[in-house]
Task: structure prediction
Amino acid sequence: MTKLVGLTGGIATGKSLVSGYLQKKGIPVIDADLVTHKVEAKGTPGLEALVKAFGPQIILSDGALNRLELGKIVFNNPSDLKQLVRIIDPFIRSEIFKQLAAYQSVPLTVLDAPTLFENGYAHLVDELVVVYTDPVTQLHRLMKRNKLSIVNANKRIQNQWPLQTKCNLADTIIYNSGTAEQTLLQVDNWLANEMK
Result:
């Protein structure tokens, strides 16, 4: 059976950098964000359930999910965010298990999930790796990447578990406040130990 490693961090901490690098190294990665997009795609039962809960304003004219509109709703109301997770989580879990079944013969598979702890996926994995970035760098990266104000960026960060709490539960911490090269060297060292 494959060893399942949970890869997480906070929003804009550099988890995607690490995940992409692992994929280039030939490690299978199940990307929870891509899984979420798949189960919320146009015409899916997941999207139908979201429309029923949050209304037709979350649909674009082409029938696809308006993520920006849904984000405005759920990131401004904690109970709406919990409702979103309750609705979509069964679809996500089902798809993750389906993808994981295809990797049972490889030694290592990574579940890349930004909300690994928040959505209760930590118990599914054999090992936890957290990508850490100092709070100031994280905030600036998120503002730049998503073109958000400082207030909206902080709201998004605060809707996740504190990064330090995740680090306290991690088996391995990858520090990503420096250069990409420094970060990826840590990934190489971790991977070398995993493959022994």
